[in-house]
Amino acid sequence: GGVKTMRLDAFAERFADAGYACLVFDYRHFGDSDGEPRQLLSVHRQLADYDAAIEYAKSLDDVDAARIVVWGSSFSGGHALTLAARQPGLAAAVSQCPFTSGPASLLALDPISSVKVTGRAVADIASSALHRDPVLVALTGHGHDAALMTAPDAEPGYLSLVPDGASFTNSVTARAGLAIPFYSPARHMRRIGVPTFVAICETDSVAPPGPTIRAA
Q1: C-beta separation of 182 from 211 below 8 A
Q2: Contact indicator for 117, 174 with CB cutoff of 8 Å
Q3: pLDDT digit string, tens, across residues 25-60
Q4: What 8-state DSSP symbol labels residue 26?
Q5: 147-149 and 136-140 beta bridge pairing
Q6: In sequence order, which ranges of the chain are alpha helices (DSSP H)?
Q7: What CA–CA distance (Å, rounded) separates 44 from 175?
Q8: Cβ–Cβ < 8 Å for 96, 8
Q9: d(Cα 89, Cα 98) in Å, to the nearest integer?
Q10: Given a cut of 90, is residue 172 above it in pLDDT?
Q11: Whole-structure pTM over 0.90, yes or no?
């Protein structure tokens, strides 16, 4: 849900001020990138997009291909750890408040919301098989909403990242609700062989810190 327009340029500017060349991109199906249907969250495709971004960065004349660092926050923070484990050619990885355990994040979700998301996920898969429009769920909500994040601070925290006048969509295809619980970057961390910085939020209400601390 965090696309380029939600101030990712501010991070890039700070890194650039410190001497780094920065490449910021939107995953396919989101933000400024192509891809249909819109708002399709696919772990496999997002990791492939990261791979493509790395290869593109290496091709640039003013970039040292031997000094590529991946950076990600929240769900992408988990991707950064997965990439660090499977791409030995990286120089380092930075993972900020990462999502590392699908089961732990599922348990952090309101039980009624979980049931609603599961029902819509099944409907979304059926809709896809019939070549119909996808069924969506909210990224952030409150109470018992059909949303992937329903902690009290999730929705106001997410909306506070959206600049005035920016276009954004607070939803994803519901099928993600069946895939995310099975994605656990923590399982890959023991294979990481490059310098890695993991910034853990001890009171994270969406990506519980326990699995991340243990894995790190």
Answers
A1: no
A2: yes
A3: 999 999 999 999 999 999 999 999 999 999 999 999
A4: P
A5: parallel
A6: 8-17, 43-59, 75-86, 102-108, 111-129, 154-159, 176-179, 209-215
A7: 13
A8: no
A9: 22
A10: yes
A11: yes
